[in-house]
Amino acid sequence: MASSFSIETRTAVPVAALFDESLSIDAHLASMSGSGERAIGGVTSGTIGRGESVTWRARHFGIRFTMTSWISELERPARFVDEQLRGPFRSFRHEHVFTRDGDETVMVDTVTVASPILGRLAERAALVPYLRRLIRIRNRHLLASLGGAPGTAPESPVWRPGQTRPFRRFEASTVVGHGDASWERVSQEVLDWKVKTRSGFAVDGARPASPGAEPMITVRFAGRVIREPVRVETVVETASRVGFSYRTLPGHPVSGEEAFIAHRDGDAVVLTIRSLTAAAPTQPWRALHPLLRIAQAIARRRYLRALR
User: Fold this and answer.
1) Where are the alpha helices (DSSP H) in 204-270?
2) What's the fold here for domain 3-145?
3) Pairing with 23, which of 39, 115, 189, 294 sits 20 to 30 Å away (CA)?
4) What are the start-end ranges of the E strands in 191-253?
């Protein structure tokens, strides 16, 4: 017997754009970088079409797998199905359905899989949760590549990110000064990454923060240097609001986005921290995520004191 599950993803990205990105070999490979996935046969780049196949090679559960799949059904932009031709499963079928619900695009992934060696109980206890996680990672990457992933919106005084699962939402503010002199100081320090550097982190890269920059953030913990690659997403500079957001890159201990924002509230100068955080897709960081959440809580307290 086979096991089956479905995952629903909602986004503001147009149906056709998400449909086409879901058929992109390059987008899939980028989303699966954590498992070292490669396309080694058939359609190895660009968009795959109906009747075409691709051979994948990747490492899962510490084992090297090779699987050839093909697009057996395709009705653009509503639905397509990819199925295993040859590979590690007795059967594998992945149906992708795209619909519109008001202002949202709804993508539903339905996977039906049968393992050649695991019984139904083991499939549901180990294989299904693992595949669920891989598909959620893939979908987060697709939305991010199309500008549809939830973000921290540093330009907005009110933050309404909507559906953020699996990301945990955090926002906190503190007054760090009063008057014009404090505003000039704090607004410059925010852009110069002082919230991070005064909290025990080092930032190797161009300053001040600029869109598209990819600095390397490092921190020493338990005698080891932890590296955190990031990319600056949005920079805001107005007369009363200054800040930026950055998104994690592969290799970062967590997955998500963080923002540091200085803004004026009358005479007060306020620092706001926002973040959306989920477990990283790769080990050992994924297993260590509960400890990383504790470390993150400590870092946030330091952030809020950094510019006082």
Assistant:
1) none
2) Alpha-D-Glucose-1,6-Bisphosphate; Chain A, domain 4 (3.30.530)
3) 115
4) 202-204, 216-221, 224-237, 241-248
Spatial CA neighbour of 9 closest among 168, 149, 129: 149
Structural contact between residues 55 and 68, judged by C-beta atoms closer than 8 angstroms:
yes
Fold agreement between 3-145 and 168-305: yes
* Contact indicator for 19, 3 with CB cutoff of 8 Å: no
Class at the top of the CATH hierarchy for domain 168-305: alpha beta
What are the extents of the domains in the chain? 3-145, 168-305
| Contact yes or no for 260/273 (Cβ under 8 A) | yes
Mention every residue, 6+ apart, whose C-beta is less than 8 A from residue 102. none
Residue-level pLDDT, tens digit, the chain, 308 residues = 788 999 999 888 999 999 999 999 999 998 887 778 999 999 999 999 999 999 999 988 778 889 999 999 999 999 999 999 999 999 999 999 999 999 889 999 999 998 877 666 777 778 898 899 889 889 988 988 887 778 899 999 999 877 777 889 999 999 999 999 999 999 999 999 999 999 999 999 767 999 989 999 999 877 889 999 999 999 999 999 999 999 998 889 999 999 999 999 999 999 999 999 999 877 888 889 999 999 999 999 999 999 99
